[in-house]
Design brief:
Strand content: 15-25%
Largest sheet: 8 strands, parallel, barrel
Shape: globular
Strand order of the largest sheet: 1-4-7-8-9-11-14-15
Number of strands: 17
Helix content: 40-55%
CATH architecture: Alpha-Beta Barrel
Number of domains: 1
Radius of gyration: 20 Å
CATH class: Alpha Beta
Number of helices: 14
Length: 404
């Protein structure tokens, strides 16, 4: 497939963190099982085609595919990626989405990045026709939910476990990119990260200072991935909480930025109020995708892709139009934005509580419901793609204008 068109995409939500249950046991929450995609994937791929889309954020369940050092079960990946190729759908391969195999423990394991890089290289070697990758999805969310808020995986709270998880996630991401490039030198890495902003609720010195800190902290995953120098306050924070100077410098020396597209995810929940006591709460949309993405682009100067957004009915269609208007205005104003994604193809399950329980509540966020009936936002997205895809292709909005 020629990669010279604007990337209109959707995705298969494939989170699989381990969560604690009230009885003290632990549960692997696999969204592909909850939405029945693990059994109905052929039907779901046809839905992607029905929408007129040629790109899909998709990956195998890492925890069930990487069985041990040098041991892999490729059976499901072989079947699904073969079918995607037959249908002419280009995957943006999602290799790690909020969890690791049981034998690797959790994101506190400093050996995990090396094992993950070996897995990523084995994957790329097995499927040499694939070019687009998201090695580790939403690093900041994975580290925050697992090691600062205590919700997933290691279920730890505090700055030190957060910095450990963040460092291991970023290192795994970086090592995987190098490993993939050794067997696929034309690989492009679309790093999907939450696009966030923090607003001070009070004008006090304490509240303003903490808000400024959080607005620098939000960049950490991208800063390490892209070798961007952090401010002194953040450097001190990293060192005070366990990252060594040598580890920090490793990121500066091992970036593969020239192979990267900055993927920005934006939801109604991505902006926050900072209260006087240091706590935060959702503020709703204040600045919006346009303003916040402009901040990220100004910092990293990379091609941009809007990699995730959604909203429940009845707001979904209006939200789609609003997000698309933001994307188009960014492009008109000189930001090299190369793609847009409604995430996900299907309704999701239990994301209203960030997968923190086994409630089986359906969240009406998809282009299709779980009976595979198209939602109004699915019809609207199909129409949007059919109208804009020829226009954007003729204006050369695609990735071919960059020297990857």
């Amino acid at each position: 497939m020629e990669h010279n068109t604007f990337i209109f995409a959707t995705g298969i939500e494939n989170s699989y963190p381990v969560i604690p249950l009230p009885d003290g046991s632990r549960l692997r929450v696999d969204e592909m099982q909850l939405t029945q995609h693990d059994r109905r994937w052929e039907e779901d791929f046809e839905l992607v085609r029905e929408l007129g889309l040629a790109y899909l954020r998709f990956g195998p369940p890492y925890y069930a595919t990487h069985l041990g050092p040098g041991r892999y079960d490729w059976s499901w990946a072989d079947a699904t990626f073969t079918r995607l190729r037959e249908l002419g759908i280009e995957p943006i391969v999602d290799l790690c989405h909020f969890g690791v195999p049981d034998w690797l423990g959790n994101f506190q394991n400093k050996d995990w990045p090396t094992h993950f890089a070996e897995y990523a290289q084995a994957f790329a070697r097995r499927y040499p026709h694939l070019r687009f990758y998201t090695p580790v999805n939403e690093i900041m969310i994975a580290a925050t939910f697992s090691a600062q808020l205590g919700w997933w995986n290691e279920c730890l709270t505090g700055d030190t476990p957060f910095v450990t998880a963040l460092g291991n996630l970023c290192r795994a991401n970086q090592q995987a990119m190098h490993a993939i490039l050794r067997v696929q030198p034309r690989a492009i890495f679309i790093q999907s990260e939450a696009t966030e902003y923090f607003h001070a609720e009070e004008p006090s010195e304490r509240c303003l200072a903490h808000t400024a800190f959080l607005n620098e902290k939000r960049f950490l995953a991208f800063d390490l991935t892209y070798g961007h120098e952090v401010k002194a306050s953040l450097y001190t924070y990293l060192l005070d909480n366990g990252m060594t100077r040598q580890e920090y410098e490793w990121f500066r020396q091992n970036t593969v930025k020239r192979h990267c597209v900055m993927g920005n995810d934006y939801y109604y929940t991505n902006e926050h109020l900072v209260h006087e006591d240091g706590s935060t709460s959702e503020s709703g949309e204040i600045f919006g995708y346009y303003s916040i993405t402009h901040q990220y682009f100004s910092r990293y100067r990379l091609p941009v892709m809007h990699t995730e957004t959604n909203r429940e009915d009845p707001e979904a269609v209006l939200w789609l139009r609003k997000e698309w208007a933001n994307v188009h205005r960014l492009k008109q104003d000189g930001v090299p934005i190369v793609g847009f994604t409604w995430y996900s193809l299907l309704d999701q399950v239990d994301w209203d509580n960030c997968l923190r329980g086994n409630h089986h509540r359906v969240n009406r966020l998809g282009l299709y419901d779980l009976d595979r009936r198209v939602r109004p936002v699915g019809e609207a997205y199909k129409s949007l793609v059919s109208k804009w895809k020829p226009e954007l292709t003729s204006e050369c909005y695609g990735l071919h204008i960059y020297n990857f």
